[in-house]
Design brief:
Blueprint: H1 12-15, H2 19-34, H3 41-66, H4 75-82, H5 84-104, H6 111-132, H7 140-159, H8 173-197, H9 201-228, H10 241-259, H11 266-288
Helix pairs in contact: 2-3, 2-7, 2-11, 3-4, 3-5, 3-6, 3-7, 6-7, 7-8, 8-9, 8-10, 8-11, 9-10, 10-11
């Protein structure tokens, strides 16, 4: 491969759309441990496959909407465009395997949540098609729905192993804080690109505030909950403190990355934004052992 076309190894998880499934599976472990659930390997595999199918399908949709020759195509879209036949086959196989796992291995409670999840995914693709036509505007509505859908799918995969609880019982601070973190993570890339391309200082300041303020609020609230959380292990009830540490860590890493974004390329920022969601899982695992 020519040197100009050779991609660094650290970029391939993003090019192959493996970054989002990895984050989803890692945070599924966080929810399962926080809620003290035993989750079978089939759930992790099903979630990973479902997230991968959605992300690949979204990128293939962007390609069909923008066209192969569009200057708006990013490196990950160009990669999917060059290998679209392989990705289409992969999507078909992954979707078939995921459906078989849902039908044969998943708890029956999953069917109570699939309809709501399906509506969210359909809404995401609808907004994705609309945002493609909006030019250089930041697709806030799409990012909010994308983050909420990602968080819902991850938490729901753990929540379905709690048959005594309804879907509304999943609306805990753990889920809400994770959803906000996902929304900010997804929005960060668009805000960084929008600010970098705009010569207007007011727009740059607005984009900065749109990311910085929510991160500070999320981090502050997580810190308060972590400090105030009582150790409930003696009562045989899960302790949410490690979860709050993880949310706080993710918020802090995104804030640090935001302040130092000028040092990195757009591709590196995408990868580091995913790392900012994976490192908190390590913090959670360490805090859970204490």
């Amino acid at each position: 491969m020519p040197a100009a076309q050779r991609k660094p190894l650290w970029l391939y998880p993003n090019l192959l759309s493996l970054d989002a499934p990895l984050v989803a599976v890692a945070w599924l472990y966080v929810f399962a441990t926080t809620w003290r659930l035993y989750i079978q390997w089939e759930a992790y595999l099903t979630l990973g496959l479902a997230v991968w199918v959605i992300y690949v399908a979204d990128r293939l949709l962007d390609i069909s909407m923008l066209g192969d020759t569009s200057g708006k195509l990013e490196v990950r879209h160009q990669f999917h465009s060059r290998h679209r036949k392989v990705f289409r086959i992969g999507v078909a196989v992954a979707l078939l395997v995921a459906v078989l796992l849902v039908v044969t291995k998943m708890p029956m409670t999953i069917y109570k949540h699939l309809m709501f999840g399906g509506v969210m995914v359909a809404g995401f693709f609808g907004l994705s098609m609309l945002s493609t036509q909006e030019g250089d505007e930041v697709p806030h509505a799409k990012n909010v729905l994308a983050g909420a859908t990602f968080a819902f799918g991850t938490a729901m995969t753990a929540h379905m192993y709690r048959p005594e609880y309804g879907i509304y019982d999943m609306l805990t601070f753990e889920f809400i804080s994770f959803a906000v973190l996902c929304i900010l993570n997804i929005s960060a890339i668009d805000l960084w690109q929008h600010a970098a391309h705009s010569p207007d200082l007011e727009i740059k300041a607005s984009d900065e505030l749109a990311l910085t303020l929510p991160l500070l609020l999320l981090g502050g609230v997580s810190l308060v909950f972590a400090v105030l959380a009582e150790d409930q292990a003696a009562a045989q009830v899960f302790s949410p403190r490690p979860f709050y540490y993880a949310i706080l860590t993710g918020s802090a890493l995104l804030y640090i990355l935001n302040r130092n974004r000028s040092r990195f390329s757009p591709d590196a920022l995408r990868v580091l934004a995913d790392v900012a969601l994976l490192v908190p899982v390590l913090v959670f695992a360490a805090a859970s052992r204490e």
